[in-house]
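User: I'm curious whether this sequence folds into something compact or stays loose and floppy. Could you predict its structure so I can see for myself?
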Amino acid sequence: MGREVRSWHLHTRSELSFHELARRINPVVAGWINYYGRFRPWELYPFLMRINAYLVRWIRQKYKRLAAKRKAIAKMQEIAQRYPRMFAHWRCTTASVAI
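Assistant: Here's the prediction. I'll summarize afterward.
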């Protein structure tokens, strides 16, 4: 799974919007959650947090004014609060985007 997420190169896809990014990764991540969430949920949680880290890197790359990590995390938390169902893995993480 980690190799698959790395192959997406999320942090370099700055031409995509947040919604387009969610539309691309949600089907795959939702499938992983459905399968591994039943059999190994304790191993799934750190992996989902890693996807959040990639999304923070994407925010830092796309929006130069949010290049500081703290600002990018705050922006992601704001988006997660406003749209909690945008990404499939935000349902499983308790703090939505705690990194």
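Summary: The mean pLDDT is 89. Residues 18-39 form the longest helix (22 residues).
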